Amino acid sequence: METTPRVSIDPFVPLRHRWRDVTAGSGFDATAEPYRTRLARLGAKAAGHRDAMAPSDASLWPDLAFPSLGATPLRLRTMARAYALPGTGLTGDANLAAAVANGLDHYRRRVYAEGADEVGNWWYWRIGTPRNLLDAALLIGPHLTERRSVALREAVDHFLPECHLDDYSGTSTGANRVDLCVVTLLRAILGADPAKAALAVSALSPVFPYVSEGDGFYRDGSFVQHTTIPYQGTYGASLLSGLATLFAVLRGSPWEITDPNRQVVLDSVERTFAPFVHDGLCMDLVSGRAIGRRPYGDHDRGRAIASAILLLGETASAAERSRWQGMVKGWALRDTHRPMLDAAEHDDLGFHARLAAILDDDAVPAADEPAGHRLLAMSARAAHRGRGWCAGLSMASHRIGHYEHGNGENLRGWHTGSGMLYWWADGHGDQYSDSFWATVDPYRLPGTTVSTRRLADGAGEAWGDTCPPGRWVGGATDGVYATVGQHLNGLESTLKAFKSWFFLDDAVVCLGAGITGEDGVPVETIVDNRRTGAPLTVDEGKGWAHLEGHGGYVLPCGTRLRTLREERAGRDPAPREGRTGGLDPVTRSYVTLWFDHGVDPVSAGYVYLLLPGASPAETRARAADPGWARVLANTARQQGVQVPSLGITAVNFWNEGAAGDLAASAPCAVLVREGGDGTATLTVSDPRRDLDELTVTWRRPVAEVLRGHPLLAGAATGAGLTLTFGRLAGRGGGSNTVTVRLA
Predict the structure, then answer these.
(1) pLDDT score of 78
(2) Three-state SS for 575?
(3) How many other C-beta atoms are found inside a 10 Å radius of the C-beta of residue 483?
(4) What are phi and psi of 413, to 5 degrees?
(5) How many other C-beta atoms lie within 10 A of the C-beta of residue 393?
(6) Does residue 235 have an active-site annotation?
(7) Do 295 and 240 form a contact (C-beta atoms < 8 A)?
(8) Per the record's keyword annotation, is Nucleotide-binding included, yes or no (predicted)?
């Protein structure tokens, strides 16, 4: 009996095709616009690179002197993409592929050679350069001979030996580990090496589980890289993109990623990344040293996150994919300052195709900005969305650095962790995008309390090793409102302060107390510093100020508010291919409002309300109603407010004690919200993460506890309420809510 011989299929063949489709772009009609024009431009660019090649011992192109670790491999990849993609005019061109192959081997022999020493940043040698070289090699396929392929693989093995994936530590964690695994997979595909492919997948496993310290994902939604820096932007976006790519490329292959902890990554889309994307931009407070790299960098990072999310959706559940598509569609429609679809046309045709498809699909509803509050205590960050506005808060603690600098970047970001309060109302999507970091006074960042002591560029240790000793940093939130606090210790300063923010529907109540310093210079609290030329109106007699088109400020009558309108000059980094960039001069207008606490203050304080988007009439009305928000305490022991119209009482207890109707046996944060249905919720947290027991009392008649919390050890009701909690220290500063029925 004759049998049909079984054909052995090389599993790496589909991986090569899938890599090209996922990373170079697919899912579009190359003859339709804007793809036709964009692909033609790619072809012209590649032809220009090919024609300008002049290999020598010092360079592959005369304008790119070796080692040129970034630009030379990137040009080779650009040429390879023009060969692999349709519609470039050079699709399948053997001469172009031969030029890429020659260029790869030339660069490998003179720079990226087995046995060569790493010069400069390790990242280029183990991640950036090999990824582009291997990518280009895969795209030109058989035009790279086996001899040249072996030599390239051996060079990669020299700079990225398998031992770098043995330990999950140092520079092999988080986003770096994902990038190393991507390079390892490319090396495996190029050499059809099953063992390398298996290593690339198994080495990802430490990335997925939740962590309680160091780099990675935290249960509260935090993502940290470099041990002390919240990093959803850049590193986080890179991690999400890398994992989405690996999930998509390896799906259905013998090396498909099936680790059960991969769900942590899927959950991070809405828990970790989305809270810090506002109308398409990724807030700078989760972007470390990258904040000043280029104008509109926050929009670029938001677009990178959106791209990763849509790609990740292709290997997620139908329900997750549907939610994410609606979310990204909403971002794209609301980002009018850097339209996401237009920008995608220039940097990612695959993303453009995915985004265009959902924008054209009426069955995908655009999701609105989610209302409410997200407090990520483990990374000292908060995001709040009220009616038509959004805010982000950046703090520093004993585990989160004041700021990060490194590689010559962000040298004056000293005070970004000193309580910087970012906020956007309608139409303000470029407030921190348009050359803000190049021109803003770095000693007067909005919301911060700072010593004006002059600091050196790059003050403090590099790479985020700038953690102050303060442990009480965090707060309590019920998901709608929040009380957040920071025990502030200045960077290279004697400054100490207690700062609290109470996030409400249309306002942020801001308190400061115990402001003390001995630096011999003035200490200031920056109420705001807006990049605008809008008119400012101040009525100190009636306790308010208003910035036209932006919002209002309410302060106690008689408070001395300092103001300044100025034009500030600076220089924007202007990256150019093949070099780190020039410096483009720019000038921007600013309006600054601040409190001057004087030289070496002792226990100074402040109170003000921020009203994002408020009109002059709304600002005046709020100022004329001092009982709207009652300050219960504003000392170095407690800070608290009561807002009767919202049923809110909130206190940050820096020490045990009482404020208003609330008392606590130890440092904690307490948020009470009375509903209109005869119930109330009490939300409690342990920001210091050191309490074995906590007792909170509320002088309010309570009939019964309707819903407790696993850590609620005891409750007494009656004329007052007493709640006793067990070990809160293990909750990572998270909020714990109890619901009661009022008597």
Answers:
(1) 97
(2) strand
(3) 31
(4) -85, 20
(5) 26
(6) yes
(7) no
(8) no
CA 320 to chain centre: 21
β-strands 630-634, 638-643: how paired? Answer: antiparallel
Contact between residue 476 and residue 482 where contact means Cβ atoms under 8 Å apart: yes
Q: Tokens at residue 591, please?
A: 């309006």
d(CA 238, CA 98) in angstroms, rounded, equals: 31
* Residue 248 CB contacts under 8 Å (≥ 6 apart), including other chains: 18, 22, 311, 314, 315
Backbone angles phi, psi at 94, to 5 degrees: -65, -35
**Residues 33-91: tens digit of each pLDDT:** 999 999 999 999 999 999 999 999 999 999 999 999 999 999 999 999 999 999 999 99
To the nearest 10 degrees (0 to 180), the angle between helices 174-191 and 129-140 is 30
The pTM of this model reads 0.95
Q: What order of strands is seen across the sheet that includes strand 381-385?
A: 372-376, 381-385, 389-395, 418-425
Pairing of strands 604-612, 668-674: unpaired
* Residue 147 host element (H or E): helix 146-159
Note whether 188 and 348 are within 8 A (CB): no
Contact of 353 with 27, CB cutoff 8 Å? yes
Across 600-665, the runs of DSSP E, i.e. the strands, are 604-612, 630-634, 638-643, 648-653, 657-659, 662-664
Indicate which residue of 218, 235, 432, 553 is catalytic.
Answer: 235
Q: Dump pLDDT digits (tens) for 656-670.
A: 999 999 999 999 999
3-state secondary structure at position 735: coil
**Beta strand residue intervals within 87-230, DSSP E:** 216-217, 223-225, 229-230
| Residue 593 phi, psi (nearest 5) | -125, 130
CA 292 remoteness from chain centre: 14
Q: Is the dihedral of CA 96, 102, 106, 108 positive or negative?
A: positive
Is 176 annotated in the active site? yes
Q: Tell me what percent of the residues of the chain surpass a pLDDT of 70.
A: 98
What's the Cα-to-Cα distance from 403 to each of 286, 395, 420, 466, 532, rounded to whole Å? 10, 9, 11, 7, 25
- Candidate list 106, 143, 164, 226, residue with the active-site label: 226
Locus of tokens 């008649």: 701
Radius of gyration, CA atoms only, the chain: 28
The single-letter code of the amino acid at 71 is A
Query: What does the DSSP 8-state code read for residue 23?
Result: I
| HSE toward the beta carbon, residue 373, CA cutoff 13 A | 27
Letter for the amino acid at 634? N
**d(Cα 716, Cα 712) in Å, to the nearest integer?**
11
Give me 468's structure tokens: 């102050």
Q: Is 121 a catalytic residue?
A: no
Contact of 623 with 594, CB cutoff 8 Å: no
- DSSP H/E element including 94: helix 94-110
Residues in the chain, total: 743
Across 155-161, average pLDDT: 96
